[in-house]
Structure formats: C-alpha cells, structure tokens
Write a structure and sequence with these properties.
Radius of gyration: 24 Å
Helix content: 40-55%
Strand order of the largest sheet: 4-1-7-8
Strand content: 15-25%
Number of strands: 14
Number of domains: 3
Number of helices: 15
Structural class: alpha+beta
Length: 477
C-alpha cells in the first residue's frame, strides 16, 4: 500500500481554517469580456480541500471590484485563482495588497497586467505563466519523466529547477526577497516530493499498474532527498507534500517495510512512520504531519484506533488548530459507519423519473460521487459496466451523484459515454447538502448501501478493485 499515493494525483494549496484577518482589495477592467462575472477562489484548509470562492459582477464598461478576506493564519503569500469565462490565471495574495487587474479576454494570458500594491509579484507570476506555465504545469513536466531511469530522472528534475532559477534571475529583479525565497522553495520541495514518488510511479509506468513490489534500483533517487525540515516552510504547499511522504520513502529505501497485502502489516508500517514524525520533526512540522496522516486515514481505519491516536495527538498539541477538523472527521466516520442509515437524496433514472434513494430499499446500492473535473471518476463510471453485467438479474443499483455547480457538462458526458444511472444532480458543489451529508471531501467517493438502506461497510472497494467489489456486493444478498 502506498500510504500517500493520493497526494500524487492532486496537489492543493493549503492553510488553516481560522477567522478572517486582513483583506486584499482587487479591482480591474476586462476588455472583450466572456462572462458577466469574475471569480477568485482558493483553498482554505491544510488537511482537506475546502475551496472558497468570491465573485464580482462586471459592469457594462468591463469594471469589477471585490474585497477578499484573508484568514488570520494565512501563509505569507496565498495562492489563488482568478477565473473569467473559460480563462484562469493564478496569483499570490499578501495581506494588505491593493491590486488593479487589467486584461483583454480575447488574448487573455498575454495581456494580463497589474498595478498597485503587490503588483510586482503578480506581474512576475503572469510573465511566468506566459513563458513557463502555471505551477501545476511544472509538476506535469516532472511526471512526464517518471519513465526515465533513476539517474536520468534525477538529472531531469534538477534541470527543471535550474530553469526556474534562471527565469527568476532574468525576470525577478523587482521582487521582494521574501517572495523570491517562497517561490524557489516551491520548486525545491516539488522536486523532493517527486523524487520520493519516483520508485512507485516509475514501476507503475513500466507495469501499467500499481504494485508494492518495487526494484531496489528505483530507490537510488531517494539519496537525493535530504532531511530538510523547517517550520518556517509550512506556508509552502510543496513542503507539506514533502513532509507527507519523506518517512515512507526513507523506510522503504532502507528495506524497513512490511508486505502491505495484510492489514496488520500496513498498520505496523503506518505506526513506524508516525513514530518517526513524533521523534524527528520540529514541533510545527510534526503537528501538521501527524494531523494530516491521521486525517487521511480516519475514514478507512477502525474507530477505536482513531480515538487512541487522537488522544495521543491531544496530549502533544492541546490547542492545535487541526483538532476541530480531526474531531469533525471522526464524527463523520461514526455517522457513516456500517449499520448507520444512509442519508436520503433525490435521483433521476434513465427515463427521467424522479425518485428517492430510500425508494430503492430492497436493493443493494453502490453510490458514487463524481465531478466532470475528475477524469478518474468518469473512467470508473465507464468501467462499472463490466461489474453491472455480472449483477444483471440481481437487485443491485449503481447510482451516481454529480457535485458540479453546473450540471450541463455532466449531463453531456452521460449522453456521450452512454452512462446509465440513476443520477443525482446537486447544487452547491462541495458544500451541497448531499456532499455534506455523505462527508465527501475528495473524488471519487464510494458508498455501499445494503438492502435495508444502511451502510454495509466503512471503506468499500473502488470499481478498480473489481474482484473485491463483486464479493462485497454479493455478500449482501
């Protein structure tokens, strides 16, 4: 089991959920506008994905204005996205910034310009997007090297960082020193993170599947990953990614790992990783690591173990900012435990008839939450067909809940790929009643409901685990 495999798939911006602090003023003008509004969004949580979006109307002359509340414990520079129509650009906010943004939507990236307090940083980021791409494009380039040999991979990621250093030297003359350090730390720790991920991902590229049986030669790159911890870097998202996997990578490279096909072995390995965090990391980094590690596992491990680990965490950090989220996650897990009733929701079947989930009592329901932004979700729904065929004459229903704010694209994909429902179309995205009732915090999310309308198990198999899922469903007849 690769404990932190999910981190490779989605790289988020993190900071803690706290009361609002200072504000950032953002106004501007958009020529040749593509929509009637502009939206600024960011993630307001270190442990999970909780996006916050602020929208502003664009008047007839293309002007807009908004104030953005910065959390009191926001990082020194907060990564955000500005969305307009089909266009998106990233920028970094700092307490007290007062920015004026101008753009011609007909040539979006090449026409972005900022003025006002904080403009030097934003114009540098806009120039970087134009020439080097957004930060997530850096990670995409690194992923493309996963098929290389260990030596070639190390050289390639080092060359990518060096290119970023040169770009900063050429275009960052007017930048404040604190932003330069913050910016370079991204690429340093992105590289460390992907070096940690290389053994697993390289083997997956070669075998076209994930496996825990990894050749020793793949671990050669781990020697290039230092133990370089600093609580001052907790505001740098790639540092958090690096923290999350460093001990797992080190233990496996040193052959101190247990075959994880058995749950007991996987638990022993996790316990070893946690022990290293408590004894090795500086206080702030240890607090984040243990909280993040536990948060990621609460929904998948025994409640009794979670309570024990949470008690230990409280003893070390009684006033931790992470405690409310950990306690909330535990409460969600208890509410969705095996034997608890599944929350009701409205479904629409293939003929367009509306029904409630509760109307399906007497049938086994495999309920999946998805989004059009999640390629894996769409792929799984298509793969479901092979499993559905096995239960053609059985009382089994595969149902899907789309959490997109606008269901238009979702309904188009359903028709395009000839997906069969029933489907639930929500409003409110991650904050929709359905997503909140089921505690959904990532995509895809799956729930197995028995014939009495109760959750059948705490952590049901995904469609990719075809055999395990078929067995789990068959046990409910």
């Amino acid at each position: 089991m690769a404990i932190f495999r999910f981190l490779f798939l989605s790289v988020f911006v993190f900071f803690s959920v706290l009361s609002p602090g200072a504000t950032v003023t953002l106004s501007g003008i958009i020529k040749n506008k593509q929509a009637d509004s502009v939206v600024v969004s960011y993630n307001n949580n270190r442990l999970a994905y909780y996006p916050v979006a602020t929208a502003a109307k664009i008047d007839g002359q293309g002007h807009f204005s908004m104030k953005l509340s910065m959390p009191s414990a926001a990082p020194q520079f907060l990564q955000a996205e500005l969305l307009h129509g089909d266009h998106v650009t990233e920028f970094f906010l700092k307490d007290g910034d007062s920015l004026f943004f101008s753009v011609d939507a007909s040539r979006f990236d090449s026409s972005i310009h900022y003025s006002g307090q904080g403009a030097d940083v934003q114009n540098f980021v806009a120039q970087h997007t134009l020439q080097r791409g957004r930060l997530n494009q850096y990670t995409s380039r690194i992923r493309n090297y996963m098929g290389l040999t260990p030596t070639s991979f190390s050289l390639s990621v080092a060359a990518e960082k060096n290119a970023e250093v040169i770009f900063l030297e050429n275009f960052g003359e007017r930048l404040p020193g604190d932003f330069k350090s913050f910016w370079l730390a991204h690429f340093t720790y992105y590289n460390y993170f992907f070096l940690q991920q290389y053994p697993m991902m390289h083997t997956a590229v070669e075998l076209r599947r994930f496996t825990d049986t990894i050749p020793d030669s793949c671990y050669a790159v781990i020697k290039d990953v230092p133990l370089k911890f600093d609580d001052k870097l907790l505001s740098v998202p790639p540092y958090l990614l690096y923290l999350s996997g460093i001990f797992e990578a080190r233990l496996k490279a040193a052959h101190f790992a247990f075959p994880t096909s058995e749950p007991a072995n996987a638990e022993r390995f996790i316990d070893s990783v946690t022990a290293l965090a408590y004894t090795t990391l500086p206080n702030g980094s240890a607090e984040y690591f243990v909280a993040q590690n536990l948060y990621a596992r609460i929904r998948h491990q025994l409640v009794s173990k979670t309570r024990s680990e949470l008690d230990r965490f409280r003893k070390h950090w009684r006033e931790s900012e992470y405690l409310p989220l950990l306690e909330k996650q535990l409460a969600i897990t208890e509410r969705l435990a095996a034997g608890a009733p599944a929350p009701d929701l409205v479904l629409v079947n293939d003929s367009g008839t509306r029904m409630n989930l509760s109307d399906l009592r007497g049938k086994v329901v495999y309920l999946s939450f998805w989004s059009t932004q999640c390629r894996q979700c769409v792929g799984e729904m298509r793969a479901d067909r092979r499993i559905k065929d096995i239960f053609t004459n059985k009382p089994v229903v595969f149902a899907y809940v789309c959490i997109d704010e606008d269901s238009t694209l979702g309904q188009k994909l359903v028709k395009q790929f000839r997906l069969s429902g029933p489907f639930c179309w929500t409003s409110g995205g991650w904050y929709s009643n359905e997503a909140q009732d089921y505690g959904v915090q990532g995509m895809p999310a799956h729930f197995l409901i028995d014939r009495e309308g109760k959750f059948a198990m705490q952590d049901p198999p995904a469609p990719a685990q075809k055999t395990e899922l078929i067995v789990a469903i068959s046990r409910l007849f």
